[in-house]
Amino acid sequence: MFFIIGAVPVWARNFDDVVLQIPEKIQRAIFSNEGYYALATSASPVLLSLNTSPEFSQNCSTLLQKKPSTILELVIVIPYSAKRPLHLIDIYNTLSATRNLAGRRYFSHSRKKEVPLFKTAFRIASPNKTTILDDPPLQTVLPMREDIYLIVDDANFGDCYYKCSFAASTHGINYTLTNIKPLTFYLFTVTKQENLTIALYIEPLSEGMLVYGVMGVTLEGIAARRINAASAARKRFDVVKSWLVDGITGVY
Fold first, then answer.
1. pLDDT tens digits along 94-105
2. Cβ–Cβ < 8 Å for 203, 86
3. N or C: which end of the chain has fewer CB within 10 A?
C-alpha cells in the first residue's frame, strides 16, 4: 500500500538531521512502501540510531528495561502530496481519534480471510471506571502532555485495556501504548500487565512523515509456545500505521 500525506512544513528537519549511522540498504527500506522492520530479543536489543527526542529515547529505555522476549522495530518515511503543510496538531488529532482504530483489517491465516483486528475501540474514563467517552473534537492547540485510557475488542485476545501517553517535543510527537491489564486467550494469560508496550515517535520531515516505532512484548507460558509474537506485533504495527496515515489524509 502506498501512502501520500500533507505537504512539507517550511520548518521541517531533513532526514539526514535525524539519521546518525544507518546503512544505505536500511535507508532504502525506510523510504519503501512497507518501511523497515527489524526483529530482536532482549538478548540483542540493538535499535537504530536516530536523533528523535529525549522523551522517545526514555520511552525506549523504559521498554527495554522490562527485558521483553520479542522486540519489533519499525521505521518508515511516508512522502507528502501537494496539500497543506502537515503540523504536529494534525498528528495529535489523529492519535486522539480512538474509534477510528476499529474495523481495520489484517489477513488471518487460520480463517483464510481478512478480519478486523480491533472490532471496537473506545476511550474510557480510567482503568477502574470503564465509562465510554466520546473522542474529543479537533483541537487547534497542541497539549504538551496527556494520558488517556482505551478499551479495544481484539480479534485474538478479547477486551484489552491500554494506557496511551502523548508528549510533544521540539520536532515531533511521542506516543506510548501499554497494556494496563493482562491480555488473555480463553483461560490463559498471554502477557502480564504492562508487558506489552508500543513506543512511537512521529515527525514531519522535509522528505515526508517519519514514523519510528518500537514494540516490546513478553508472552507467558503456553502463549509463548503457541503464538507467533513477531507476526502478532507486525499486525498491530501495520494497523497503527494505517490508522495514523488515514487520519492525517482525512480518509475517514
1. 999 999 999 998
2. no
3. N
